[in-house]
Amino acid sequence: MATAPALPGGFELPLEPRLPRLGSVDAVALEERADVLSKRSIKRESKVFALELAIRMMDLTTLEGADTPGKVAALSSKGIRPDPTDPGIPSVAAICVYPNLVPYALERTRGTAVTVASVATAFPSGQSPLEVKLEETRWVVEAGAQEVDMVIDRGAFLSGRYAQVYDEIVRVKEICAGRARLKVILETGELGTYDNVRRASLLAIAGGADFIKTSTGKAATNATLPVALCMLEVIRDVHEETGRVVGMKVAGGIRQSKQAVQFLVQVHETLGLAWLTPDRYRIGASTLLNDVLMQLRKERTGHYQNPDYFTVD
Predict the structure, then answer these.
(1) Whole-prediction pTM
(2) Tens of pLDDT along 25-55?
(3) How crowded is residue 301: how many other Cβ atoms within 10 Å of its Cβ?
(4) Residue-wise DSSP of 53-84
(5) Does domain 23-309 have CATH number 3.90.170.10?
(6) Enzyme catalytic residues
(7) What pLDDT digit, counting tens, does each position of 57-95 carry?
(8) Which of 13, 243, 255, 281 has the fewest C-beta atoms lying within 10 Å of its C-beta?
(9) 144's torsion region: left (phi>0), alpha (psi -120 to 50) or beta?
(10) pLDDT in tens, 212-237
(11) What's the CA gap between 136 and 139, in Å, rounded?
């Protein structure tokens, strides 16, 4: 039986005792496997299934300073009916917005299967006092957000203050418990190494994350295939060791349907069919949906639709 992950600094956190050991990531092997999986070809029928699944897994997102209630309402309408001319196209999983726009997203999605997610804890930097982060989390949960995407304090993590990072996740989880799913954003592009990605993933899971998420979409480097694979392997190891189910969300820079399919192939090969569901896997996207819709139209009719046919996200 594995003990709690041993962390640099000569101490162990009071983590779940059966979580896998931290270990060291073989970067060459990880990148090689990610590359091999990215070249996996799939048949037409499987491609249509994968594209529709990608839509069902999408967190359709707008996180801009110029966001307005009208923009959120329009985005929510698109998430509910991505292609108004084709009722066979599924709805997205969630609409993800800033806290003050949660009520408008909830109003538009009421009575549908689309959930509302809100970023919190001083997104995207995470650089605010803990009480401010907790108050923001309380506000979005009480406002009715069904999912909360929190960011870890990367400054604390990179300084070796792992207990602080762990404690913040635990405190946020206490507010969300029984009321909203918690997605913990690692901002992997700022963590530097795969070992750090694995360490941060384990910390997030130990702290109570329902999902671990790659990125805010605001950093220079966002979701990459090797990083996503590293995180999926943590989820696999935790499940094999403890039986606990943890979801995964990739976000940032995923703009083409080909990329979405590559990430889904990783999930299938690493975690199996059980994780190919919106309850366990999400794709954060702001511009991906239109490309997926065009690819679906092409697979069904043999012809590409003009991009102007679809509304701008």
Answers:
(1) 0.90
(2) 999 999 999 999 999 988 878 899 999 999 9
(3) 9
(4) HHHHTEEEE---TT--HHHHHHHHHHHH-SST
(5) no
(6) 149, 213, 249
(7) 999 999 999 999 999 999 999 999 999 989 999 999 999
(8) 243
(9) left
(10) 999 999 998 899 999 999 999 999 99
(11) 5
